[in-house]
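User: I've been trying to design a sequence by hand for this structure and keep getting stuck. Would you show me what you'd pick, starting by listing the structure so we're on the same page?

Assistant: Good idea, let's start from the same input. This is the structure you sent:
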């Protein structure tokens, strides 16, 4: 099994990458869509943030609401209306606070929390235990959306980070 410390390193790197990739983006450009339909920073941060609390719930063995059908869920579409999203500072603060809760839960979780059977009506088909679900959310899911954010930066005229 992967050490939680190894997983926490990747997870922290992903969250810090979101912070770096938005550091020079002015608040008023956070919902800009230089390409029609592109996922912009406000939507991307709003989308990944709820999964921090899903990680906490998984490791504590408590039920969670599926974020798929929320304002920023995978079934939503971003809009270029900046007024539809919280401020950049609020978005980053929520992402960071959620990461801190999840990182603490990962560091404190007993071994049996990681090996517990994954039981969720929609997600249960994808993961047989908590460990691969948490690993996916803390790495692959986050990295997928970091790639989208990086692509958005280039399309919006921002330099590489």
């Amino acid at each position: 099994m992967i050490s939680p410390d190894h997983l926490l390193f990747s997870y922290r790197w992903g969250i810090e990458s979101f912070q770096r990739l938005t550091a020079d983006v002015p608040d008023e450009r956070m919902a800009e869509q230089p390409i029609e339909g592109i996922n912009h920073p406000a939507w991307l941060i709003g989308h990944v943030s709820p999964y921090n609390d899903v990680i906490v719930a998984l490791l504590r063995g408590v039920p969670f609401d599926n974020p798929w059908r929320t304002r920023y869920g995978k079934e939503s579409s971003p809009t270029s209306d900046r007024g539809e999203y919280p401020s950049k500072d609020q978005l980053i603060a929520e992402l960071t606070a959620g990461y801190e809760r999840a990182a603490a839960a990962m560091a404190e979780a007993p071994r049996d929390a990681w090996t517990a059977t994954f039981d969720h009506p929609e997600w249960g088909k994808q993961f047989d235990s908590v460990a691969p679900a948490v690993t996916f959310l803390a790495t692959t899911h986050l990295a997928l959306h970091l790639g989208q954010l990086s692509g958005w930066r280039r399309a919006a005229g921002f330099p590489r980070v």
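That's my pick for every position. To get oriented when you compare it with your attempt: The chain has six helices and no strands. The helical segments are 4-22, 41-48, 50-60, 88-108, 111-115, 130-155.
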